[in-house]
Amino acid sequence: MTALLLVPLVLPFLAPALARRTLDRLAPATALWILTASALVLAGACVAALGTLVLTGLLKLPALAPLGELVHPLRTPSDYFVLPAAVAATGVLTLSALTLARSAFRQARAFRTARTQADRRPAAGDLCVVDSPHPDAYALPGRPHRIVVTTAMLRSLGPAEREALFAHERAHNRAGHHYFLAAAELAAHCHPALRAVRDTIRLAAERAADETAATAVGDRRLIATAIARAALAGHASPSTRPDFAPAATTGPVPQRVAALLAPSPARSRARRPTALLLMACTALSLAAGTAGVVDFHHQVEIAQGEESP
Amino acid sequence: MTDAKDERRPAGELEAAVMAALWAAGVPLSAGHVQVELGSGLARTTVTTILTRLHEKGVVSRERQGRGYAYFPVQDAPGLTARRMHTELDRDTDRETVLARFVAQLNPGDEQLLRRLLEQEGDE
Fold it and tell me: What range(s) does the Peptidase M48 domain occupy (chain A) (predicted)?
């Protein structure tokens, strides 16, 4: 039954492709909820499975078995499988915890600094302008919500496009997208395959904000041109930010622009089931993980002499 | 955009729009110029009211120009702290976690694709 614990470790590898499909087929705001919830459940099942493997390994050690009040040896598959798996699981869990703690610490520090500085500044509505030659703009959540925009970004856009940008950032803040992004980051630290899902969640959040902004300003093309112009302006100037490894696929910006320019896709009911494959995969992972943990618990009770096999 | 729609927007959003226009211009603007620059249906008196409010908050300064005032954004110590905050955030490569940035880094080939999309827009 220990094999059941491997299911939550393997299934996340299917998630990136299924996540893309979900975003393609559903409205971005709906997809964002499904993707984030799935990523969290997949991550949770993965951590639970790893934790159970670690415990299994520990209870196999003769020195530790009495601590678990085991009177019989724990019945598991061959030690040649269980012990290396437990060692590997311990390593992976430790590494995940360390990178997660480091990331959380950095993010919290940067966020606090941004908030403190933004609060100290007299506000023109919710806008916080930074005098910088690099075109950049982002939503700064908190109380009150702020939009941070550099002067270079403001100058590279026309008046209507600036309104489009503000509408997009306000959509992020109003919908609380930072919670989704934080959840995606948390999941990404639990399983390597969930990193690709995190990128899809980021794209879903942007797409959702684009759609809300398009409704607010009443013009999809305006949002599309604002995004394209802002991206090109940012690309032309040398960036101080490190370049990320070039990806073979089309980046998120053209996808967003294309989605806004395309006529509203008719989301047929026939295409929906494929969009729900991710949820099926998540449910399977959760079920297998739960069954694995329950079985482990049962085996421990047998070893403690509380239950008969 | 109609007058009614713009006049009904929350005061904060109007202040942000006016402030953005002043920063984008880079030179002091009169209320009339701001109104033209915004290109929306805002009444001149509304623009003047917003500019006066921003001036009272100390976010914009003004200088005499003819019979009225020309307004420009204040660049002072708070401006510097804002710049510091930006540097702090920039240091973190993965700050997109909590901060949703408007546009992400472009992949190779994205630039051409975007230019083509913008050109198509111009044709139609």
Answer: 122-184
